[in-house]
Amino acid sequence: MTDLSSFPVAARWPAKDAGKLQLYSFPTPNGVKISIALEEIGLPYEAHAVDITKNETWTDEFLSLNPNGKIPAIIDPDGPGGKPLALFESGAILVYLAEKADRLLPRDSARRYEAIQWVFFQMGGIGPMFGQLGFFYKFAGKDIEDKRPLERYANESKRLVGVLEKRLAGRQWIMDDDYTIADIAIFPWVRGLRDFYQADPLIGFGDFPNTVDWLDRCIARPASQKGLNIPSRG
């Protein structure tokens, strides 16, 4: 029987079945990437809600799993060599899960790295820029009189959507006919920009029909419909 007692996080968020992959997350764009991927793969897992609105990522137990204090993170009881593996950073987790399951990444080596580069495009560009736009447009930053930060992040976010728009021209998914972790990494952030931040007045989504159609296809997938709400906010 798998023993997770060596992981302090398991004391605060105990596993019902320690033999299943343990997901510590919250339904944010970064968080739902992993639940969506797990639903696509069909790997058994347990989801534990780590409430970022209550600063639970800064508890000693969670920091023992991710010293950067961010969701998501996982413990796979059946990691490499059959030993438990703890992992943080959503992009790294996506690559790990895809390789573990031999799903959601092309098998051809060149196309595999092509897909991974789009995951990094999200990690390095879309996530940080869209997140800053949300802060300055919808949250506390909107009260700042100087609108130059908002303009900067709005312009860069629009540029990034434009990059995605060109990539999706004539393609069903980012990797043509293959739905991959590249789509899973990116679409929750585009969804958040459009539906949660309600940034259409700044972005003009009507100018990006390829992106909008792709986003709707991603959202409509059964695994997305389920994973977008895992873990529950309570």
UniProtKB/TrEMBL annotation:
GST C-terminal domain boundaries: 108-234
Keyword field contains Transferase: yes
An annotated Gene Ontology molecular function: transferase activity
Record domain GST N-terminal: where: 18-105
Keyword vocabulary terms for this entry: Transferase
Family: Belongs to the GST superfamily.
Name of the featured protein: Glutathione S-transferase
Source species: Neoaquamicrobium microcysteis
